[in-house]
């Protein structure tokens, strides 16, 4: 098995290198010249001398696809546990003074900063074990997303040149996300803050820099310190699921008039200037959430719906909130091949889900919704095994 895995890695590496006609050494020399033209010092550029050939492991992770589509139940259960909640509450007490200072400056509530910290790096315990320069060089040399990662590579060199971190200490994920915040270099450069006043921005080791930088990013992205992210709600029996999704936004009073309630059964609170969307991450049989503007800001930090819901719910738990009430007991994952089959069947019936790729994106969800509308099913756009069985028959 080890020999087979090594062969696959070598084949993957060879494929990417063959797609790139220029040798890595020549490419690196051009990058070095470009960086020098941008004013990067020779002392910083010397770090490029230590770079090796592109890392096959980075290319493998960049091109890998899971066997199954992860369900909301699984995603949440891996990140919100009783132990994680207790740890977050303990750290909120431990760093209460610092977090309150950050809140007063940027308006970001402490429990949300702790939630981002938890989900991004498990409170700083899992920040990635790759050299950021080596990872970015690998991805910038690969033709697939070369322009984006080349820009990130040049920004990373600028960060080193400005004295914030040494090249040897600049560690992060395989994709170049850095530190306890998992900032890409461009986000660091635009939003990083020297919270402890030592003249450097250190999101690897300095908690003031970590919290000030995260809060600055969220604040500039539109975070509202007097609002929550959203809440779990109960939908009326006759709810029109075509209204679900982030594309539909309505004033809170309209949602209240449609019969949405808090999980306690009380009417949802209404603020005249707030709008919200209904999000149903596990389909019509799972939980429903009414999401506000801060939910949208969370998705600026990291786009996936599951991510934003998890950050919001974890923040609620840190503040003493209850667990989600309507989690499905047996949400079944679909394999990539099953999703491809579902997309192929939708296409054959005239519902355009795009090229079958095994990924449930916006086009596939739109096709599912159109099919559900035709069949008189709840229009929740949810990809499920029961939907696949209906398509097969």
Architecture overview:
The chain is mostly helical and 393 residues long. Among the domains are: 2-65 and 128-178, Helicase, Ruva Protein, domain 3 (Orthogonal Bundle), CATH 1.10.8.350; 230-318, no CATH class; 336-392, no CATH class. The chain has helices at residues 2-19, 24-37, 42-45, 56-63, 72-79, 82-94, 96-106, 110-121, 132-141, 146-161, 185-191, 207-220, 252-257, 293-301, 305-318, 336-348, 362-375, 385-392; strands at residues 130-131, 171-172, 230-234, 250-251, 261-262, 275-279, 288-291. The strands form 2 sheets. The protein has a 5-stranded antiparallel β-sheet with strand order 4-6-7-3-5. Strands 1-2 form a two-stranded antiparallel ribbon. α6 crosses α8, α9 (132-141) runs antiparallel to α10 (146-161) and α10 crosses α11 (185-191). The longest helix has 18 residues, at 2-19. It is globular.
- Indicate the low-confidence ranges by residue numbers: 1-19
Number of extended strands = 7
Order of helices and strands: HHHHHHHHEHHEHHEEHEEEHHHHH
- DSSP strand (E) fraction? 5-15%
On the 0 to 100 scale, the average pLDDT is: 93
**Looking at this structure, what is the CATH superfamily of the domain at 2-65 and 128-178?**
Bacterial muramidase
So, CATH architecture of the domain at 2-65 and 128-178?
Orthogonal Bundle
Radius of gyration: 23 Å
| CA(first)-CA(last) distance | 39 Å
CATH class category label of the domain at 2-65 and 128-178? Mainly Alpha
Q: Describe the sheet with the most strands.
A: 5 strands, antiparallel
- Principal-axes shape call: globular
Tally of contiguous helical segments: 18
Secondary-structure-based class equals mainly alpha
- Biggest sheet: strands side by side, in what order? 4-6-7-3-5
CATH fold type of the domain at 2-65 and 128-178: Helicase, Ruva Protein, domain 3
| Helical residues, percent | 40-55%
């Amino acid at each position: 098995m080890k020999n087979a895995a090594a062969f696959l890695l070598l084949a993957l590496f060879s494929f990417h290198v063959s797609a790139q006609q220029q040798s890595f050494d020549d490419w690196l020399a051009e990058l070095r010249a470009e960086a020098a033209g941008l004013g990067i010092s020779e002392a910083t550029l010397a770090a490029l001398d230590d770079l090796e050939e592109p890392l096959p492991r980075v290319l493998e992770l960049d091109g890998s696809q899971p066997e199954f589509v992860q369900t909301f139940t699984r995603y949440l259960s891996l990140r919100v546990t009783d132990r994680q909640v207790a740890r977050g509450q303990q750290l909120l007490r431990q760093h209460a003074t610092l977090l309150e200072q950050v809140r007063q400056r940027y308006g970001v509530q402490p429990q949300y900063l702790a939630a981002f910290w938890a989900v991004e790096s498990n409170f700083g315990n899992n920040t990635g074990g790759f050299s950021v320069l080596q990872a970015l060089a690998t991805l910038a040399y690969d033709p697939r997303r070369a322009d984006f990662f080349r820009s990130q590579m040049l920004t990373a060199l600028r960060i080193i040149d400005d004295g914030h971190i040494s090249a040897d200490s600049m560690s992060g994920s395989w994709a170049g996300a850095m530190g306890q915040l998992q900032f890409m270099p461009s986000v660091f450069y635009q939003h990083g803050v020297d919270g402890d006043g030592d003249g450097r921005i250190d999101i690897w080791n300095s908690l003031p820099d970590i919290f000030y930088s995260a809060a600055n990013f969220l604040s500039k992205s539109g975070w509202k310190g007097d609002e929550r992210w959203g809440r779990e709600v109960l939908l009326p029996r006759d709810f029109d699921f075509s209204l679900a999704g982030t594309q539909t936004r309505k004033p809170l009073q309209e949602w209240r008039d449609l019969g949405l309630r808090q999980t306690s059964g009380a009417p949802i609170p209404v603020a005249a200037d707030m709008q919200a969307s209904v999000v149903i991450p596990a389909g019509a049989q799972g939980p429903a959430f009414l999401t506000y503007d801060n939910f949208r800001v969370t998705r600026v930090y990291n786009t996936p719906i599951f991510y934003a819901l998890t950050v919001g719910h974890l923040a609620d738990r840190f503040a003493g909130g209850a667990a989600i009430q309507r989690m499905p007991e047996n949400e079944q994952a679909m394999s990539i091949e099953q999703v491809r089959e579902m997309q192929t069947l939708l296409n054959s019936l005239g519902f355009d889900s795009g090229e079958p790729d095994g990924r449930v994106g916006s086009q596939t969800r739109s096709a599912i919704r159109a099919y559900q509308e035709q069949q008189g099913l709840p229009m929740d756009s949810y990809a499920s095994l029961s939907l696949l069985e209906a398509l097969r028959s």
